[in-house]
Amino acid sequence: MNIDLTNTTTRRIQESLTQARHLMGGPAVGMVLTLIIVTDESAQYDAVRAATEAAREHPCRVLTVISRDARGSSSRLDAEIRMGETGPGETVLLRMYGPLAEHADSVVVPLLMPDTPVVTWWPGGRVPKAPASDPLGALAARRVTDSYAARDRLGTLARLAEVYRPGDTDFAWTRITNWRSLLAAALDQDHDRITGGEVSAEPDSPSAELLAAWLEVRLGIRVVRSSSDGPGITAVRLTTKDGDIQVSRPDGRVATLARPGQPDRQVSLQRRPMADLLAEELRRLDPDEVYQDAVTRFAKDLSAATTQQEAEAADKSAAKKAAPAKRPGSGSGSGSSK
Question: What's the distance, Cα to Cα, between the start and end of the chain in Å?
Answer without folding.
Answer: 104
